[in-house]
Structures are given as structure tokens and as C-alpha cells.
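Usage

Read records sequentially. Each one opens with the input sequence:
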Amino acid sequence: MLKDIASALSLNEHQLVKPPQRVVIGMSGGVDSSVAAWLLKEQGFEVVGLFMKNWEDDDDSEYCSTRQDWIDVVAVADILGIEVEIVNFAKEYKDRVFEDFLREYSAGRTPNPDVLCNAEIKFKAFLDHAMRLGASAIATGHYARVQHGVSGYELLKATDLTKDQSYFLHRLNQEQLSRVLFPLGNLPKTKVREIAENLHLPNAKKKDSTGICFIGERPFREFLQKYLPSQPGPIKTANGQVLGQHIGLAFYTLGQRKGIGIGGRQTGSGDPWFVAAKDLVANSLLVVQGHEHPLLESATLHAQDASWVSGKSPVVSDHYCAKTRYRQGDALCSLKFPEDPSNQNSFDLVFSKKQWAVTPGQSAVLYDGDICLGGGIIYSSAHT
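and closes with the structure output:
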């Protein structure tokens, strides 16, 4: 059965990289990268596993699973019969990802470290290292697909839309996509688990990681307070009523319901409170009652630091879809660019239906059907 699965799957047929050339695959200790490595080997590639250690601060804490993950990688590699090595990218991660992560939070925005981590570490530092090892390509356990289209390499959603990770990969460029394989792009997650169990992999039932890229699953506010100072200020309603005090705007995000610190305060409708905005000048946190409050809904957004997969801006259209956060359904939108030709590194999206809690610092990712065109960092949004 396993042989049939491996032979039936089409691994990026557009690729110049064909067996038996060397492929270096990033192995995290999870089930996805483990099964991806098996698929590559079954298709005749020379597979080398690479475990990336990218975080060293409090590495011995209960929240950092590096040691156990490495043990799982070694155990899987032994079963699959592949080479595996460990490489330390902690300096690159701190310089290229974590420092930017802290700057964004300090500026009142809520960044997505996984997006930058993919662009700077998994598909840059890791790719460069793999090439030095004589690899023809790299591979990961991401759920996404690549194909060669009219405009070059295209990034596509995974066939299992419940696991699709193209959102996190939207900043990859043509050179990076030309050297990557996504073996799981055509597989549902249920099948990946089934393959792992049939192979008797020790991590077949290991839960998926949901923590910050390479930092692990830990109490986030407590973690952030180690690196950013607390700057308390008032928590206000839309009419200016002060309900309490926040500990610092960096520790809250738009749409947040839990952990605001005003639990039990009943006014008006009695609905739950949500974070709706941050006033950096006044250092105040605006909260509103009710999930459907108008101040939580945006009709448009402005994004900057645009990155397009094809290397050039897509044509203006009223028929694209976008995601303003992972785990969000596609939202029909129109793409617009500034009239100033010198400002083509930014764009605007106008939604056919208002979007909830559009958050500065997150990524707005644009799609044309299954094709991920790229995106940018949300800078601001408007309710009308």
C-alpha cells in the first residue's frame, strides 16, 4: 500500500530536479517532515535530513522542545535509512527574524513571525546551507504546491485546504521556488498520519506544533515581557470611559477577547469585550462590546512591503481573493495600487464584505484561484 501511495503522488513535475539527485529536507521532529522525507526516498532521491536549531535563549525550559525534537528526527532517520545532521541558525534567526518581531510589537503592530521565518531562515539560510552540501533542491513538510506556469514558478494552495500553508510562504521568490519540493502538497493530513503509522514512526501521533516559529509553545505574554518593557495606560471605551489599565500596548492584539483585564465589567449590552484599536500617541487601548461591533470590521486595508511571487505586481482586478490572517476563508476583493508610481511597494484591498479584526503587522495575502500571488504587511484599515 505504501509503495502505491509513493508512486501515485506527483512531486512537482515541473521541477528540473529529478531522481537520483540529492535533496536536503528540513526535519523538525514532526510527522509532516518525516513522511515527506520517506516520500522523497521512495521516489529515488538521495535524501539528507537537516534539523535546524534556531533558538538558544532558555533552551532548557519546559516550553522549548529542541532536545526531544532532535531525538525524534534521529529515530525517524534511522527507520528511513537516511543521513541526518543538525545545524545552528540561532544568530541568523535572532538577527533576521526575532529583532524585527520585537520592533513590530514595539510599534504597536502584531507581526507573523512564521512568514518572515520562512523567507529568511527556512528558504534562505537553510537553502544556502543545503546548496553547500551539494543539494540540487530542498524540501519541507509544508502543505503547498509549486508548478511552472506562463509567468514562471507559481505557488499553489495544497489540495487539503484545511492544512494549506501557502499563506506563510507568500514571500518566496522565483529562485527559491525553483529549488523547493513540497512532497505533501497533494496529500490530506489524515493520509500523512496513516503513512506514519504504517511505517511505525515514533512520532506518528505527535501533535502538531502551534507555537511561535522555532521558539515553541509557551505563555506568550510572559515570554514577550522578557524582551519588551511594560508601559501601562488606560483602557477606554469608544465614548472615552476608562474601564481599567493595560500593561502595555505591545501585549494586546486587535480582536483579542481574553486576557484584556476587564473581565466582569458590565456596561451597555453586557456582551464580551474585544480590543478594537490602539492609540500609540495617547498610549490607550480601545475596547468595544460584541463580536459584531462596527469598529471591529474593515472594508479596506492598506499594505506595505509588498512581495510578489512572480517578481512583478499583478494586474489590477476586482476578482481576487485575500486572507488577512491564517485560518481565514478567502475574501473576495479588489486590488488597487497608489497613483504615485514611486510607491509601488504598497497596495490597497477593497473587500466585497467587511473583514473582522484586520490587524496591522499581519500579512494580507492575495490569491487568484489556487494561485498565491504574494502579499504585503497590513499597515492600516478603514471601516468604510
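Summary fields computed downstream for this record:
- The CA atoms of residues 211 and 217 lie 4 Å apart.
- The helical segments are 2-8, 31-42, 66-80, 90-106, 113-132, 174-177, 189-198, 220-224.
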